[in-house]
């Protein structure tokens, strides 16, 4: 997030898109609710489903799946045409506005309505509401990123925020809501194939040399590695012989799941490191039992870039060890000794090799966390990014055209499918499905379908449906709901017994390599 979570309550307008906030981020959603009910903020929600946060919305726009670039360009068309953008900010802090203007010129409200299904008058009303706000916050999640155009979607939101001067101010920003508690921290620590800690590129000779010196090694790899999706394809083709999977359950969470299962079964050696015996761990040659969050010391970095302590509350069961202990012991046995006394020692090294973390030490986050970048021992941290200037200097507008989803409905597969989460289960259910109370509230998979689609197909609530795509099929119970839009069904991806990802499309965003989980074509039939 460019802004801290508390800034949500400073916004005059909040734009939520691609986020079922109350179900996926229930704590953070309370800030949105307070901003609206207690502080007079206006809420715009752009989502194809009638999600619960809509109850607080001034405006709800319901786009067709995969049309985000079109409606965002439509917003900017209206804002530019009516002179609502922040001209002083744009001139002082950005470049390439003329390129953006040329691209969005054709995205008239009428043209956007043809693509997105959003009524033109509603689009204009929402664009004006956002454009006139002195401080407007954009909140988005995986409904924006999990498309083949996910990078385009995010850049388009950044365009919109810069156009109206909403980056680097209290109550503004472009704020991704992370899907798990330490996703931000994992990325910060180099859990991506092309960077070291702090997003230092592996192709950068200076960064590589610093890391070689710090670790006492020569000639670290000069080229980026593979993303998760590329690893799976490599395993399927026999190019990758072994996989070491830590805290992930791709046998439920990967797209085009039948293909992913075949890939995993083809490797010569599979290691799974997890707190429970997941669907993936059951296939492993070796399972390394690890400690849960409550059984370890260390830090998490949350969605607002805040580094916070986590403290051990109880001992791990049986032979389970903390993840860092397992990795260090394995590394040492493979010939590179890793001798750390404790997580504090690891944090000291992180600070030494990571410019954005160099001021973050245990003694400074004993009682409260710090936001990176924190660049010195006396630096207060940076809750709000880009206050005076962007990291690259001037912010760059990207002129982006709309590209449709990779797979559209046709005669054989006439419905759209989108996937997501429900409030009472989490990710692949590794933890939540071991809680009886949560299983009573959300016991099984379902196919959310609109009343009109159910009526036209003579489908009754609760009866089993077979859902097919070009990649696989599942059976789950019908759930007739006003949340659903006509022509689109929604299935939660948590349930291994009816895994929605047997249906989803593995086509990738060419930049981020993220699959298009959020839209594909399916057919349904009564069982």
In short:
The chain has 527 residues and is an alpha/beta fold.
Explain what you see.
The chain has 527 residues and is an alpha/beta fold. It has 3 domains: 5-177, 3-Layer(aba) Sandwich (Dimethylsulfoxide Reductase, domain 2), CATH 3.40.228; 183-371, 3-Layer(aba) Sandwich (Rossmann fold); 415-526, Barwin-like endoglucanases, CATH 2.40.40.20. The protein contains 18 helices and 21 strands. Helix 3 (68-81) packs antiparallel against helix 6, helix 3 packs parallel to helix 9 (150-163) and helix 12 crosses helix 14. The two termini are 45 Å apart.
| Major sheet characteristics | 6 strands, mixed
The assigned CATH architecture of the largest domain is 3-Layer(aba) Sandwich
Please give the count of helices.
18
Helix fraction? 25-40%
Over the alpha carbons, how many angstroms does the gyration radius reach?
Answer: 24 Å
Instruction: Give the termini distance in whole angstroms.
Output: 45 Å
Q: Tell me, what is the CATH class of the largest domain? A: Alpha Beta
Topology overview:
Elements: E1 13-17, H1 21-24, H2 26-37, E2 42-46, E3 59-61, H3 68-81, H4 87-93, E4 94-95, H5 97-104, H6 109-116, H7 120-132, E5 136-140, H8 142-145, H9 150-163, E6 174-176, H10 183-188, H11 205-215, H12 228-236, E7 242-246, H13 250-253, H14 257-266, E8 269-274, E9 286-289, E10 298-301, E11 306-310, H15 323-333, H16 343-353, E12 370-371, E13 395-396, E14 415-420, H17 436-441, E15 446-449, H18 451-456, E16 464-468, E17 473-480, E18 488-492, E19 505-508, E20 515-516, E21 520-526
Parallel strand pairs: 1-2, 1-5, 2-3, 4-13, 5-6, 7-8, 8-9, 14-18, 15-17
Antiparallel strand pairs: 10-11, 11-12, 14-21, 16-17, 16-21, 19-20
Helix pairs in contact: 3-6, 3-7, 3-9, 6-7, 12-14
């Amino acid at each position: 997030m460019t802004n801290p979570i508390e800034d949500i309550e400073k916004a005059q307008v909040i734009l939520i898109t691609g986020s079922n906030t109350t179900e996926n981020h229930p704590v953070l959603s309370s800030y949105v609710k307070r901003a609206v009910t207690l502080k007079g903020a206006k809420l715009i929600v752009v989502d194809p489903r009638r999600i619960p946060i809509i109850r607080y919305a001034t405006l709800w726009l319901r786009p067709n799946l995969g049309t985000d670039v079109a409606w965002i360009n439509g917003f900017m068309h209206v804002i530019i045409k009516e002179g609502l953008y922040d001209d002083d900010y744009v001139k002082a802090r950005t470049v390439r506005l003329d390129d953006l203007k040329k691209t969005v010129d054709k995205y008239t409200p009428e043209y956007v309505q043809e693509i997105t299904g959003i009524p033109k008058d509603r689009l204009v009303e929402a664009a004006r509401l956002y454009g006139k706000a002195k401080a407007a916050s954009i909140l988005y999640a995986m409904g924006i990123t999990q498309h083949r155009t996910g990078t385009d979607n995010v850049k388009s939101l950044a365009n919109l925020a810069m156009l109206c001067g909403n980056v680097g101010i209290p109550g503004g920003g472009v704020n991704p809501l992370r899907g798990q508690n330490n996703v931000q921290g994992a990325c910060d620590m180099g859990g991506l194939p092309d960077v070291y800690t702090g997003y230092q590129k592996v192709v950068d000779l200076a960064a590589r040399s610093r890391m070689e010196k710090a670790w006492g090694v020569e000639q670290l790899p000069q080229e980026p590695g593979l993303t998760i999706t590329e690893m799976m394809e490599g395993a399927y083709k026999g190019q990758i012989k072994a996989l070491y999977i830590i805290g992930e359950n791709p046998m439920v969470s990967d797209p085009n799941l039948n293909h992913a299962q075949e890939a995993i079964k083809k490797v010569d050696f599979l290691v799974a490191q997890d707190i429970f015996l997941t669907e993936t761990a059951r296939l492993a040659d070796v399972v390394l039992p690890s400690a849960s969050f409550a059984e370890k010391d260390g830090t998490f970095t949350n969605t607002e870039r805040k580094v916070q302590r986590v403290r051990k509350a109880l001992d791990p069961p049986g032979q389970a060890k903390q993840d860092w202990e397992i990795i260090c012991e394995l590394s040492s046995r493979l010939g590179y000794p890793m001798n750390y006394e404790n997580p504090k020692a690891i944090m000291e090294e992180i600070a030494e090799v990571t410019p954005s973390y160099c001021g973050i030490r245990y003694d400074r986050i004993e009682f409260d966390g710090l936001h990176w970048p924190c660049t010195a021992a006396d630096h207060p941290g940076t809750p709000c990014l880009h206050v005076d200037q962007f990291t690259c200097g001037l912010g760059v507008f990207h002129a982006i055209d709309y590209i449709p989803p990779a797979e559209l409905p046709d005669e054989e597969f006439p419905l759209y499918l989108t996937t997501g989460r429900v409030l009472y289960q989490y990710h692949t259910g590794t933890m939540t499905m071991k809680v009886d109370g949560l299983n009573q509230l959300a016991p099984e998979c379902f196919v959310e379908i609109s009343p009109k689609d159910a009526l036209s197909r003579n489908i009754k609530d609760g009866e089993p449906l077979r859902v097919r795509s070009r990649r696989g099929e599942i059976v789950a119970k019908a759930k007739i709901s006003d949340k659903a839009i006509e022509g689109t069904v929604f299935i939660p991806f948590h349930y291994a017994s009816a895994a929605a990802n047997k249906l989803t499309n593995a086509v990738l965003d060419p930049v981020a390599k993220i699959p298009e989980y959020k839209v594909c074509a399916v057919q349904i039939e009564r069982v």
